[in-house]
Every structure is written in C-alpha cells, then in structure tokens.
Design a protein that fits this description.
The chain is mainly alpha-helical. The chain is 63% helix and 8% strand. The two termini are 22 Å apart.
Amino acid sequence: MDINYKDENDSIVFLLAKANQKAQNELKKSLKQYGITTVQGLLLGLISIEEGITASEIGKKLVLDNATVSGVLERLASSNWIIRKPDKKDKRVSHIHLLHTPEKDKIMPLLKDSFKSVQEELLQNYTLEERILLKRFLRDFI
C-alpha cells in the first residue's frame, strides 16, 4: 500500500521518534539530579522489580543490545548501584541485584517518583481511557 504523506506529522515513524525524544528529554532532566542517565534509570527500575535478573533478560525486556546493557551495568557497578552474583549452575551468567546502601536506599524511591512524575506530566492532557488505549497501542506495537 502506498501512503502519500502530506508532511512529517502524517508519519508514524516521525511521530513515535518525536514522542520518544520528548519522553527521554523529560526523564533526563528529572534523573540528572541523581547523576544517572535515562538508560541507567530504566535498568535500575527493572532490577528493582526483578531482583536477580540477568543481563540478557534485561536486554530482551528493554530491547537493548548486549553491548549497551553490558556497558550500562559496568557503570552502575562502578558507581555502587548494583552487584553481580554468578549463577550457581552456569558461571558465565550473572544475576543483577541492587546494592543496598543507606544512600542508595534513600534514592531509589525518589527515582521511582521521578518516573511517575514524568509519566504524569507527559499524560496530563489525556483521559484515563486515552491513557489505557495509548499503553495498549504501544504494547501491541512493540
């Protein structure tokens, strides 16, 4: 099917890219105070939900390549956000856990609040039904 676009606002690729850019920029601003990037924030959020997740599982869930996940995990480990524990059966596999320190344990709820507040800001003009539909469309899309 040939679709003639009148301008970039008719292109789903353009619109998704711009929506992603806006969400990333808002999240970046919100997380800057904690010294972490948006991707680091996404990984920490996932690890906090799924303690013991492996790097390959992180890559699959966040649709990131192994090199990206590995690099982000290295930076998180070197800044004492996470620890890796080797799998008991396969030493090539590591399970990722949050490193619990008083400082990090205070920051984690604030990070989660940052994600929630950015989401609320981005969706403030949408009704509950529109939010549900948007999530469904995006889930189906990926």
